[in-house]
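Need a sequence for this fold. Nothing fancy.
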């Protein structure tokens, strides 16, 4: 794996050591290797896709169901206030944030992360869902 991916893998597995069995290495079009972690959701979750994390293109991408978000690092930069991917993953696992997806018949229209108990952004719905 490239240096960025190796560092991210160490940081992720330090927090979630059981996920080593969910990790695999893939190669991008540029020939550089990165890791992919896929964790299946619990049976009671109403989602089509579980949690995924990968480090392609020297960025961390975290996906859950039809939503994904990008991060510059696994742990973030506390001094700059930048949250990292691990914090985001932990918030999903703890159900402190949820993913809301909108569909029109069988066509996906958009997804948004929302703090647990909060309402989705009306502006998001106007911009993406009704388009």
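Here you go.
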């Amino acid at each position: 794996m490239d240096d960025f991916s190796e560092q991210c893998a160490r940081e992720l597995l330090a927090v979630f050591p059981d996920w080593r069995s969910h990790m695999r290495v893939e190669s991008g079009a540029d020939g550089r290797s990165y890791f992919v972690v896929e964790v299946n959701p619990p049976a009671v979750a109403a989602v089509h896709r579980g949690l995924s994390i990968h480090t392609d293109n020297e960025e961390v991408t975290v996906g859950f169901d039809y939503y994904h978000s990008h991060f510059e690092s696994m742990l973030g930069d506390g001094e700059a206030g930048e949250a990292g991917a691990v914090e985001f993953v932990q918030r999903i696992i703890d159900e402190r944030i949820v993913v809301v997806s909108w569909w029109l018949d069988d066509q996906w229209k958009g997804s948004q992360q929302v703090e647990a108990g909060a309402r989705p952004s009306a502006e998001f719905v106007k911009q993406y869902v009704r388009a």
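For context: Residues 3 and 58 are 9 Å apart (CA to CA).
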